Amino acid sequence: MSVWRVGADTGMAAERVRERRRTLAGENEEGGADKAAGQKPQAPQAAPAPPASPPPAPAADAQGTSGGGRALQNAVDRLTKWIPGDVLALYVAGVTALAAAQDARPSVVLLAAFAVGALLWVPAAAWASTGSVPRRTWLPAGLAAAAFSLWTLSVPFSGWQRWSVVSDNQAAVAIVAALLGIFFGFFADGLTKRYPPR
Question: Cβ–Cβ contacts within 10 Å for residue 93, how many?
Fold first, then answer.
């Protein structure tokens, strides 16, 4: 909820409290006059309903996005869970460094190198933890490389941006990548359940 909305709600609530107090004060005065005259006090009349408040605005998440932005974020999350976090962090750092250079162009070589890096990261992690690389480790490794390739479609200044179809249609490509990411997440979940790594 935005600060403005909280302030508006607080102001409206304070006005309702003041109105209710005025109403109750008027009822108490009337009831007191009835008692002094020896008459039965009348049943209090219902206070007029407070004015209807406008419907609440869509709640924004911590990043300031509403419902549509959250759906895109969920699609990205479904995709990035398959990519080793170190690969994501290093790629973003590499792309940022390239973008800061003068006359820089998106690097297809960097994109391809990190896709291969995502493929090799999973078996390397298995080797480091167990001392062996089971055959079924290659399924999550392949999924990591595929997820990385899809995810980078939505990264500004990635190697995909060298292709004019991607660079000229960034919004459409981001939407298509999000949709593909959702379906990829379902597909990858199903594959790993059918062929669990040992």
Answer: 10
